[in-house]
Amino acid sequence: MGSKWRKAKLALGLNLCVYVPRTLDDSAAPSSERLSDAALLSPTNWDSRPMTPTPSSNGLRLAKSGSKTSKQTCSICLTKMKQGGGHAIFTAECSHSFHFHCISSNVKHGNQLCPVCRAKWKEIPFQAPTLDPQPGRAPVGWPQTDAMMTVVRRLPPPPRRDRRHVVPLLQVPEPSVFNDDESLDLQPAFAEGSSGNKMAAGHNAGKTVEIKTYPEVSAASCFNSYDNFTVLVHLKAAATVARENPRGNLASLPQLSQTSPRAPVDLVTVLDISGSMAGTKLALLKRAMGFVIQNLGSNDRLSVIAFSSTARRLFSLRRMSDAGRQHALQAVNSLVANGGTNIAEGLRKGAKVMEERREKNPVASIILLSDGQDTYTVSGSIGNQPQPNYQLLLPLSIHGDDSAGFQIPVHAFGFGADHDASSMHSISEISGGTFSFIETEAVIQDAFAQCIGGLLSVVVQELQVGLECMHPSIRLGSLKAGSYPSRVMADTRSGFIDVGDLYADEERDFLVSINVPAESSINQTSLLRVRCAYRDPLTKEMATLESEEVKLERPEISGEVVVSIEVDRQRNRLQAAEAMSQARTTAERGDLAGAASILENCRRLLSETVSAKSHDRLCIALDAELKEMQERMASRHVYEASGRAYILSGLSSHSWQRATARGDSTDGSSLVQSYQTPSMTEMLTRSQATLLGSPSAQRLVQPLWSIGSQPKPR
Fold this sequence. Notes:
Layout: E1 5-8, E2 18-21, H1 37-41, E3 72-73, E4 80-81, E5 89-91, E6 97-99, H2 100-107, H3 150-154, H4 188-195, H5 198-203, E7 209-215, E8 226-237, E9 265-272, H6 280-295, E10 301-307, E11 311-319, H7 322-333, H8 343-356, E12 363-370, E13 410-415, H9 421-431, E14 435-438, H10 444-455, E15 458-469, E16 476-480, E17 486-488, E18 494-503, E19 507-516, E20 524-535, E21 542-546, E22 550-553, H11 565-588, H12 592-607, H13 610-613, H14 617-631, H15 636-656, H16 678-692, H17 695-698
Parallel strand pairs: 9-10, 9-12, 12-13, 13-14
Antiparallel strand pairs: 1-2, 3-4, 5-6, 7-8, 8-19, 10-11, 15-18, 15-20, 16-19, 17-18, 20-21, 20-22
Helix pairs in contact: 6-7, 6-10, 9-15, 10-16, 11-12, 11-14, 11-15, 12-14
């Protein structure tokens, strides 16, 4: 589009240079009236005299003192448009007004519809997408913090030949095969780790996984047999390894990669930009994605898929170097909301990026966010019940088909009261990811922060737990492992649990049921041995470790029975999760009173347990969570709006033993957040600091590497 540029001048105490096309095609304008790029950028051409223009044929005017515009609100950023605010104001031909930088970002790729009334404009504002007259100024719509925009300030302006002919991001043709991912040009620390030299040796110093076992009682009479004797298997991943960098010196975090490497990530975000995301939702999503982009390291790679009625890959899987971050920020900032909700197509494109990449980082994941229901794919039914077939939303590659050898977890985020919580939970459950419920729009960035805090701290992969009976008469009964795949072999003498990835400091607890035979005059009975096999994500090497034998004291007279509080705690967790599942099933049948009664009965049973009487933190958290679920079943309206999503996010958290965002808070001090790791908490602190905007807090907004912090008490 040829354009003749004019300067619009503003008497707001701050000189801004904005570029406004007189018409959509003014190539015929006399060349004598055109200003060169250099002239436009020169401060000598910025007229600082007050200007009070009147409405013109093209709909542009600048706010004048005492005008009605000064009391209006911009419908895009929802902040006041007032005199002295330092922003040009654009009033369209339909009479709706916006900040110039907000609306120019909204229409920069050809959208000519008013965000308020959807009227089609004949003329639109335009701001050169890669040209910035103020050095270091953030892309439109991004927070103006020094820390957030450091990467933008370091980049040189684009060559002049690229300034006039910029291909809109959403109009770049997609290749038929997504094998255009950027090469894994790993930093020296990671390259050294892959070759197994000193970095790898330092990384492997100490155990990566710790195994502990707890029989339900410490002693049992040798003359009695026990059919459902419980043994708790407790696993804990190591903390992040290196801690050379003092916690107070956060400004030097980018250099931490040289001494404390972590496994780099391939991340694909699949984002809903349907019409219902317009306004505040999309603005907050852009801010949250800006936080994600700024906190990925130069070895991490990101690709963004945007979907509405169709899906589009905004850019290929590329490293978050300075240039990569700049490109990603511009791409995300270009998003405009309209159309329907085609989740299946978005996931198909996201899976395609992962499947067809030429190279692979050790960790890979998909983040899905939607605020609505899929209106294109889910229409199947089961029997006489109109039960949607949510598997239709998932590409075959995400189903976890062993023959394909490919499974990428999808961490799903349901946004607001209108999203389809059942479909989002099913997507995450099938793929091995988590489901988070974002009830309040303002916490979307915190929810993303908690998720990537985990993804950026993976220390164990492909973890498998093996169980072997030691006594010849002992047999395995059930393995209570939540959503983790488990199996008991045909001889019932051994079993396995497939755990997969563990974040730093993450813990897993599994209850194993066995039979204990009666013995004659014996001091001990050997019960089990636990073995673990896993892959180190940095060295790619497999490692194994083995626990000591689990033994049970067998006196002739056992005396007073001392119940293990660790076993009791995990029984309570599983009992609460089962009550949540039953209550949800009952509520879906329309019996909200019955569902609330199930939760109340579970609370009563928990209050009578050993751990509850010992004021165990997890038991208190479970009671608070069950009470919250009861309150969200007060009416059908409340249940539909938030109760279903709240229960499903809780079930996801307990079944995977991994933190999820629930309701309107991800606060680590909340009793509900029982599975947050120090890395998640650290990232949450960074997120909340960027929202506070204090200079000391802004120093936190640097890429997160490996920050040591002490785990919270269980």
